[in-house]
Amino acid sequence: MKKVLTIAGSDSTGGAGLQADLKTFQEYGVFGFSSLTSVVTMDPTAGWSHEVTEMPVDLLEKQLISVFAGGPVAALKTGMMGNEANIALASEYIGKYPETKVVIDPVIACKGTAQILQPKSVAAIKEYLLPQALVTTPNLVEAGILSELGDLTSIDDMKKAAVAIHQQGAKNVVVKGGHRLGTEKAVDLLYDGQDFILLENELYQTDRNHGAGCTFAAAITAGLAKGLSMAAAVRLAKQFVAQGIRQGVVVNPYVGHVWHGAYNSAEHRMTPELD
Q1: Is the pLDDT of residue 118 over 70?
Q2: Is the pLDDT of residue 267 over 60?
Q3: Using H for helix, E for strand and C for coil, what is the string for the chain?
Q4: Each residue's pLDDT tens digit, 185-214
Q5: Crossing angle (nearest 10°) for helices 84-96 and 57-67
Q6: Residues paired with 257 in a beta bridge
Q7: Are 86 and 55 in contact (CB under 8 A)?
């Protein structure tokens, strides 16, 4: 069984973050490790406002030491990192294991909140993590920030952003369109430095999509760990998330989550035959 790692924040409601990653790893049949960078909490008495509590960097290092006590993992992903010190430390450990396939989910904003990471953290993602990424998976907002192109409103904008992010060191870039793109289909774009691949499937009009981005990146991570090509891993991840959104669940009056077990419960199989 392949070993995979998520370095990410915690979502106590179980839909996104580290919890979503571990659920996705389980569904893919890989063994998940985790290192916690921050805890995201939500206040139901204040309109479901988000608060991020960062883990100190020395505690993150203790977790990473524990994870790597058994040697390298096949693949890892990063999510919400909390602060620039955690980003730099994660980059240091990634550098120790060049054989590990690295997925960088550049979490800059929580869904449903305008909270943006501080400029130093954005700069640290660009300086430390993007150059180590086998693939990075920004959404439209994150891609606009990382590429410094601002609001992205079309597929052409997504292509320009993907090129700019690739030039910062990421070997592959997946820009996620989502609802913000305003298209009739759910459109994502994969760029490998030479070619663009448009990925489309049905766009589900639902609010039960919390955790979709984290789950998508985790699914790519697990697929790469199991030996899928980049294109196949991204395609399968998109199908996995689409099923999760289609069968999403209402958790409380404020949020609905993707259902991480949906793809397998629909009797699909995790196969590499997607190239």
Answers
A1: no
A2: no
A3: CCEEEEEEEEECCCCCHHHHHHHHHHHHCCEEEEEEEEEEEEEHHHCCEEEEEECCHHHHHHHHHHHHHHCCCCEEEECCCCCHHHHHHHHHHHHHCCCCEEEECCCCECCCCCCECCHHHHHHHHHHHHHHCCEECCEHHHHHHHHCCCCCCCHHHHHHHHHHHHCCCCCCEEEECCHHHCCCEEEEEEECCCCEEEEEEECCCCCCCECHHHHHHHHHHHHHHCCCCHHHHHHHHHHHHHHHHHCCEEEECCEEECCCCHHHHCCCCCCCCCC
A4: 999 999 999 999 999 998 888 888 899 999
A5: 20
A6: 210, 249
A7: yes
Q: Which two tokens stand for residue 153?
A: 């409103």
pLDDT at 49 over 90: no
- Average pLDDT of the chain to the nearest whole number: 92
Distance CA 17, CA 24 (A): 11
